[in-house]
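re: ur question from yesterday

yeah so i grabbed the chain u mentioned. its 271 aa long if i counted rite. heres the sequnce exactly as i have it in my notes:
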Amino acid sequence: MPAVRTGGTPPVKVSFLRASVLAGLVGLALASDLDGVRAADAAVPGPLRVVLASPSGEQLLSEISPVSSRKGASQKQGWVISRLLEDAMAGLTAEARSQVDLVILKGADGRQASIPRAFITKVPMRLVLDSSGGGGVAGARFRAVVPADGRARSVREDLPWGTYELPAVSRVELTSYQALWGGQFLSRRTDPAALRGEKLFVQNCMSCHAAAVPGWKGRGPGFAESLPQALSRHPQIQGLKPLDGRSSRALVSYWTAWLTEPTGVANAGNR
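ran it thru and got these structure tokens back, copy pasting raw so excuse formatting
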């Protein structure tokens, strides 16, 4: 049997089986350390990417890392999103910039927030660095925050600010409602009540219900009439007021019109 000498102590006899067990334990320890390093590397977020998204593809506009020293930003104050978007779109044509009316924040946990660009322009929403998960600045995440005055404005404008805040934003997509959910826009644009209902639904509902909408086609006008009662049981969302009579009638008008449009028109363009 092999012998292992330790300092001046007598030789210690180690069986082949015992040596194999010791080697295995050392290997497990090294593997555990390696897994820890990999986990630590994975915990460090990559740069925040701002992209222009359209049906024809994507264009990377800018990237920001949590440790960057961008003008007008600090760890405490973060980035005003409207300024961030202005910088990112500086190289676009005026026509391309004018077509962007929807900003989508995508989180590392799979959640996302669909925000009207007009709201971001009027309200100083920020991306602040959140290092509460540990790791200091290098491990910080970009957290989307709606300020108090923005929350008040969203209530006045009937917008769901509670869905606009995300804890770990990793991507910002600039797009348009038409490009993303074109299938929800009415082709017959003559009824003001239906158009108001269209705006309410597309702005406030599609971000959560887009996947279900194609299955609603063909349910008939009774489905539209039942919406107000169904919405009265909807979980409350911060920023949205309970439906009043005018909004209920607008949604019924919109869905009655949408459900009677040709299938090819009503379902085209959603992605």
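noticed a couple things. The two ends are 70 Å apart (CA to CA). also Residues 44 and 139 are 5 Å apart (CA to CA).
anyway ttyl
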